[in-house]
Amino acid sequence: MSKNVKRYILIVIGFMIVGTACAFTLKANIGVGAWDSLAKSTSEITGLEVGTMGMIFNCSCVVGQIIILRKKFKIIQLLQIPLSILLGTVINFVLYELLIFPFDTFVGGIFMYIAASTVCAFGVSIVMLLDEVTFALEGFCMALVSVIPVKFHVVRQGADVLSIIVVVILTLIFQIPWSIGVGTIIGMLTFGPTLGIFMKLFKPILKKYDLLNYE
Length: 215
Hints:
With 215 residues, the protein is mainly alpha-helical.
C-alpha cells in the first residue's frame, strides 16, 4: 500500500472519529462547541438532522473558499466536500441510530462530554498532522486570512463568537432549546490544550512510519 493511500485512509478515519465524538457531545446534552451549536440550533428550527445541517454549513465554507481564493484554491481541497458529507453522515448515524437510549443526567453528561471531546481532539490531531485536507471551517478562515490583515487565530475565534451570537438570537426568536451551556465552556478551556498534547504525541509516530510530508 502506497504512502498516499495510507495517509488518505488515516484522514478518513480521523473524520469518522471526529463525527462519532461529536455525536456523543451532542448526546451529553450540556452544550456543545460554537460551530456545532449552530448546526444543532438550526436543526431544531428546520427539522433537518444535526449532521445534515453540518454538511450544509461545511460545504458552504468550501464554496466560500473557492470564491475568496479563486485560482489560488487548491483542487485537493475539494475533498473537503465528500469528507464533510462523511462527517455529517457519521454524526447522524451515531446520534440517531446508535445513541437511542435515554440520557438526561447532568453529571453523567459532563463526563460523557469530556471523554467525547478528548476523542474528538484525537481525531482532529490526525487530520491536522497529515496536513493534506483541512476541515471546512478552518479552511474558510485560512482563506480569509489570505486576503485580510488579521491572524488566523483571531479569525477562527471570531467565527466562534459569531456562531454563538447567531445561536443566542435564534434561540430567543424561535424559543428552541439552548445548544450552548457548560459543555461549550468546557470545550473552550480543554479542547485546545488536549489537541496540542495529541499532536505532540503522534507526530513522531507518524514521522516514524513516513506518513508526514514535512519535518
